[in-house]
Every structure is written in structure tokens, then in C-alpha cells.
Amino acid sequence: MIKLIFAIFFTLHCYGYGSTLHLSISSNPSKLNPLIATDSASGEIADWVFDALLAYDKDGRIEPRMAKSYRFIDDTTLLFDLRKDIVWSDGVPFTAEDVVFTYRLITSPKIFTPYASEFRYVKSVEALGPYRLKVTYKEPYFKALQTWLTAIVPKHILEHEKDIMTSGFNRRPIGTGPYTLEGFEISKDIVLHANPTYFRHRPRIDQIVYHFIPDPSTQFLMLRSHKLDVGSLTPLQLERQIDGSFRAFYDVYEKISQSYTYLGFNLRDPKFQDPRVREALSLAIDRQELVDILFFGHGQVCNGPFMPGTFAYNDAVRAPRQNIAHARALLKEAGYDAKHPFSFEIVTNSNNPIRVYAAQIIQHQLRSAGVVAKIRTMEWQAFLNTVVMPRKFEAVILGWALGLMPDAYSIWHSEGSKKGGFNFVGYHNPRVDALIKEGERTVDQEKLGKIYREIFALIVHDNPYLFLYIPNSITVVNKKIKNVSQSILGVMHNVIDWIKP
User: Distance between CA 79 and CA 354 in Å, rounded?
Assistant: First the structure.
């Protein structure tokens, strides 16, 4: 018996079981149902609890996850064979009926979600048995596989819910992912436990604790005192505020982020409907100065809506150089001068200091063109729920994260401006709408790239957003943790294999 106990202890110690990974989170999750989790905090937590039929591997290629395999029967028919060893965290087996239910729920009027747009070309989802699934598309679709990167939710829990948007499930989720969550309280730490029945394998780290730290300065102090295992650094912190002790404790991983930051206008507001005004504001901003001040070389100017290195990026389009004289002339044409200056309010979230600093720099730059910009900062959830989603703003500074497969529909198509959609600035361009629809039916990568590069140029010309910068992602990880590796997905792509002694 003593030998058995020792063997168990030795195994748990060697593989990291019983250890805790300490992370931080700066805002409260709202809804942990992945079908309606639209803020970054909710999405980050939900990603631990839920899984999908398909996923990206470390090199950005799609691979089976909850699916055992998949194959196209023809251009519009996709067949999945599902794994038979998956159970929900309450012990109920996962089957094809859960996938059918998820599809019907996400496309139903019961919920408001921008993710429904991912399924707009799906004609039907049919269970051919407990572990086989047939998906039929209305026509060939360039993101047929990416559609099934969407997390699956449990039918047996949610099928009898009267109101999914207010369901208790949104706070106490049941999933098939690597970690489980019993629930969370607002402004409290969030504790996730390793799922012992996770189908890939039980995570080596037994527990993940997200420390609720809304103040970025406090987050940095927690990192400096070695109380967090993983965290993000700003370029200023990396270049000027860490010492030898910090570098001895953490490894630093840096890569261009799959995100950009923008100044977005409410195009429903008459003052922003004049394209001369939007162009003038664009010409008044020195984007390179923003990058230089904010990032110390750890970032770059953003030239448009799709990321460099993707098929959709248009190398011929560049952000305009600052031209105060031209900006003033355009504003004068639009009816604004020193006696009647153009004025507007910029709103952003207070827990992101880089965005707040960017707003202040932009405010100063615009003043040179005679523009009066006021700044308001708000707590993230209040900002999201009372300003962004109800469209009660003049201009916002926000960021947008992009997947490995660019898709213009959710942000730039006119249909995305409806309630729950991501086109909350109200952008409408019939030519862009037509090109987006054409692109969805184009599976030839070369033709698709040509279409998307035209979309890129049209959007930049219209200035619904002023694309500002692409920051580098700077992540630090406790050097004691084993099996950490960089990937196109970032360093967190294989956390279930991490070992923390």
C-alpha cells in the first residue's frame, strides 16, 4: 500500500497534477455560453470549458477535435464521424444530437448573436446516428470547415430553457473542454479545475486561477512579484520597467498580434456621414507617431481591415500621411472653421491604458487641425453594454481580433448592423456587400484574394474606421513551466501539456 501511495504521489508530482496556473483577468465575464459570449473576458473563460468539432493546430491548420474525422462528399456536403469517448462535464455522453441542437439554437430567434452569421450558408445539419453527422450547404462556401470551429453546447441542459440569454447556464456552464467551472462571482477570482474526463487527456496542471485585477498597474506589480505565471507586457514595461530578476523568472515571447486598434465612427450620426469629415480626421492623425510613442518599435501602423500576411491584405494600400493643411481645407468645405469647429467625443475602456493614451495623443493631433475631441473612459462592461452595443456613441477606440481565415461579413456587410451584429458603426456600401457575397461562394484562393483585396481598398477609402496600429503581442511565462512553445496561435496553444513543478 505504501508503495502504491508513493507511486501515485510520484506520478502526480512529475506530471504537474495538483499544481496551479496563476493568470489575471481585467474585466468581468458576462455570459459563458460560447454562442453568446461576445466580450473578450467571456470568450477567454469559455474557451477552457467548451470545445468544437474542429480546431487549429499549432501551425494554423484545421484538424479534428470533437470530430474523429471529416470528408467532403461533394462541394456542398460535409460528413463528420464523431469521437465516441467524449462526455459532458456532468457525465452525459456527447452525441451528434448536441451538434444538431447547437446549430438550431445559434440560428434561432431565441438568441441574439453575431456568430449566427457563420452558419448562413448551412442548409441543414442532420444526425445519421449517434456519432455521424451530415452538413449540407446551400452552395459552395469558402469557410465551410471554419464554421465548425464554433463551440458545441449541451442539448440535455439547454433544450428546456425558456430564455437562453438569461439562463443560469451562462454563469455555471457544462462543457466538454479541458477545464470545468462551477460558477463565478462578479469582481472575484475565477477558478477552473482540470476535467478528469477530457477526451484528449487530462490537463497536466490541475487548476487555473484567474485573479481579477482590473488595474493594469496592479497586474504588472503582480508579475514583478512573481505571483502570476503568465502575463502580458506593454512595450514600455519591456523596455524600461523590468529588471534582471524579472528576466530570470520569466521567458519572453513576442510576435505580431492578430489584432488591430481603430477609431470607429457612428455612421448613423449625421456629423460623420460627410466623407470629407472622415477623411479630414484621418489626415489629421499621425499614425506612425502613435506607434512610436506607444510601442517603442514593438508594433506597426495598421493600413486596413485585414492582417498582413493573409491572402486578403492589399499591399498597394497605405495609411495616409498626416496632412494638417488638407485636413483643415476639407473641414472648411464641410462647413467647419475656427469659429465653428468640428467637435466630437471619443469613448474607450479605462482598463486598457494603451487605448486611453492613444485617445490622448489623437486628441492632441486633432487639435492641430482645429478639431475639438473630448475623451470619456469607462469600465469595460459598462462601456460594452451602455455605449457600444446600443450604438450610443460618436466615436470609439476599440480593437478587433482576427482569425486565421479573414471574413469580412460580420463587420463590414450591411446585414451585420442589425441588433447583436458586429457592424455596430453602421457601415453600408453596396459594392462591398456584393463583393463579400461573391467571396463567400469563391473557393479558389487566388480569386478570393483578388476579391478581398478590393474589399480592403474600398473600406479604407470610405473611412468608417480610422485604422491605427497593430501591436506586437508580448507574453511572459514562468520559466519553471515545461512544454511551453511559440506558435502562430500564441504560447497558450498547448496548455493542457504544460507541466508546472
Answer: 45
DSSP class of residue 482 equals: B
Which stretches of 123-240 are DSSP H helices?
A: 155-158, 216-224, 235-236
pLDDT-above-90 percentage for the chain: 81
The whole-model pTM stands at: 0.76
In this structure, what are the phi and psi dihedrals at residue 343, rounded to the nearest 5 degrees? -135, 150
For residue 308, CA distances in Å to 135, 157, 303, 439 come to 32, 42, 9, 19
Those residues whose C-beta lies under 8 Å from the C-beta of residue 24, and which sit 6 or more positions away, are 210, 211, 212, 213, 219, 222, 228, 231
Three-state SS at 465: strand
Cα 214 from Cα 189, distance rounded (Å): 11
Torsion of CA 232, 236, 242, 244, to 10 degrees: 110
Q: How far apart are CA 449 and CA 38, in angstroms?
A: 28
Are 373 and 345 contacting, i.e. CB atoms less than 8 angstroms apart?
yes
The full set of domains in the chain, from first to last, is 2-30+171-256+474-497 (3.40.190.10), 49-164 (3.90.76.10), 259-472 (3.10.105.10)
**For the packed helices 353-367 and 287-295, what is the interaxial angle rounded to 10 degrees?**
140
Partner residues linked to 253 by β-bridges: 475
356 secondary structure, DSSP code: H
292-337 per-position pLDDT tens digit: 999 998 999 999 999 888 889 999 999 999 999 999 999 999 999 9
3-state secondary structure of 113: coil
Q: What is the distance between the alpha carbons of residues 176 and 198, in angstroms, rounded to a whole number?
A: 7
Distance CA 35, CA 169 (A): 12
> Tell me, what's the pLDDT at 114?
85
Q: How confident is the model at residue 246 (pLDDT cuts 50, 70, 90)?
A: very high
User: Residues 266, 425: contact at Cβ < 8 Å?
Assistant: yes
Q: Quickly tell me which residue has 498582413 as its cell.
A: 308
d(CA 495, CA 207): 11
Contact between 429 and 458 under an 8 Å Cβ cutoff? The reply is yes
Residues in the chain: 501
CA distance 250 to 223: 9
DSSP assignment, residue 358?
H
Q: In sequence order, which residues have a C-beta less than 8 Å from that of residue 445 and are 6 or more positions away? A: 311
> 165: which DSSP letter?
G
Instruction: Say what the pLDDT of residue 20 is.
Output: 97
Cα 20 from Cα 91, distance rounded (Å): 24
Q: What is the mean pLDDT of residues 97-121?
A: 93
Cβ contacts of 457 within 8 Å, gap of 6 or more: 304, 314, 316, 317
Contact, 220 vs 241, CB < 8 A? yes
3-state secondary structure of 218: helix
